C-alpha cells in the first residue's frame, strides 16, 4: 500500500481510499527557488598588479576580475572573492563579482603591502609600494584590462581615472586623465564622460573631455567620480580618492653631496630635495652658492635637482648653500660642508 492511501473496512469490503479522505486536502507547496550556482573559476586577476604611491601613502582602487572556464562564458559572475592585505586597509574583506565578472575594492594606507584575492582556491596578488621620496614620481598608468575576452560580452565599460602627477596642492591646477575601455581593453572612442570632482553626486563637467584641468580650493581628501557612457548604451563607473595639500604651506629643503671629503678637481654631485614636492605648472628655482667655485641656478622637477661641480685644489672647507624658491614665493634653504684636499 502506498504512502498516499489508507485501508478502511467499508461494509465488509476492504476499501482503498486516498489518504486525503481521512486527513483532509493536503496543500501542495512549490519548491524553494534554488539560486543559480556561480560560474566555475579558472582565473582571478587584480588590476593593477603593481602600484607605487608617493611618500605618506594614499588610496587606490583595485579591480578584481574572475574568468570562467565554461565554453563560451569568459566572465565568471556572482563569484565571492576573499581579500586580505599584509598592510594598510581594504574597504571590504570579501566582494561578489557582478554580471561582468568584475568587482572593485579600495586599498588605503601608508605602508607597503601585498593584496591577495582568492576565489575557488585560485589566488591573485597585487603589490602596493609607498615610495621613500627619492627620485622622480612616474605618472601612474590605468589598470590593465582583462585578457582573452569573448567578443561583445559583457556589455559594460571599464573606467579608469588618475591625476597626471601628484601630490596636489590647493589652488594649483592639476590635470586628470580618464579612459573608458571595453572588455577587450580597447578604448571606446565616442564615449562621454561625466566628472564629479568632490563626490557629492552632482556632475561638474560633462562631455567628451578625458583630461579636465581642476583646481581644488582647499586642502583635504576629495573623491573624484567618473561615469562614462558609450553610444550603444554601455556604461561604467570609476573613482579616485586624492589628498590635497594646503596651499602656501611651508616647504623644507634637504641638501646632500656624493662625498663630503674630496680632492681638488674631483667631481662632486650635489642633490637638493624639497618636501612636499610642489607640482607643476610653474618653475621652481634653486639658487646655488658653491663657495669659491661661484654661483649658479637650476630648476627643480618632481621635487629634486642635481648639480655636479668641482672645487679648487687647495686645503679648504667649502660651504655649499641651496636656496629653493617656489612660484608662489615660498623659500627654503639647506647647506652642506665639503672638505677639499690637494
Task: Note the main attributes of this structure.
342 residues; mainly beta; Immunoglobulin-like; five-stranded antiparallel β-sheet; five-stranded mixed β-sheet; 1 helix
| CATH architecture term of the domain at 155-247 | Sandwich
User: Please, what is the average pLDDT?
Assistant: 74
| CATH level 4 superfamily of the domain at 155-247 | Immunoglobulins
Largest sheet: 5 strands, antiparallel
Order of helices and strands: EEHEEEEEEEEEEEEEEEEEEEEEEEEEE
- Cα(first) to Cα(last) distance is 118 Å
The percent of residues in helical segments reads: under 10%
What is the alpha-carbon Rg in Å?
A: 32 Å
Q: How many helices in DSSP terms?
A: 1
CATH C-level class of the domain at 155-247: Mainly Beta
Number of strands: 28
**Low-confidence sequence ranges:** 1-37, 133-153
Structural class: mainly beta
CATH fold assignment of the domain at 155-247 = Immunoglobulin-like
- Net shape: elongated
Estimated share of beta-strand residues: over 45%
Q: What layout of secondary structure does this protein have?
A:
Elements: E1 5-10, E2 13-18, H1 20-23, E3 41-47, E4 50-53, E5 58-70, E6 73-75, E7 80-85, E8 89-90, E9 94-96, E10 102-109, E11 113-119, E12 122-130, E13 158-163, E14 168-169, E15 174-181, E16 192-196, E17 205-207, E18 213-214, E19 220-229, E20 235-245, E21 252-257, E22 261-263, E23 268-275, E24 284-289, E25 295-300, E26 304-309, E27 316-325, E28 331-341
Parallel strand pairs: 4-12, 14-20, 22-28
Antiparallel strand pairs: 1-2, 3-5, 5-6, 5-10, 7-9, 7-11, 8-10, 11-12, 13-15, 15-18, 16-17, 16-19, 19-20, 21-23, 23-26, 24-25, 24-27, 27-28
